[in-house]
Design a protein that fits this description.
By secondary structure, this protein is mainly beta. It is 0% helix and 46% strand.
Amino acid sequence: MIRVIAINNNEACVVGRNGIALRTVDSEKNWYRYPLGMDLDVYALSRKGNDCWIAASDGTIFRLPAR
């Protein structure tokens, strides 16, 4: 399962299976992968301000800050 959340016209976060967490800050020209150090599925995705917050299937929560 893949989740996508837009922050504004230029920024978005994507999460999915096997610990995939990506963020773009330039209208999808470049995607930055955040190494979460695990291969669990990531299910929950939300945002607060310019940060994306994600939750893995084991309950671990991560913050994806703007680059």
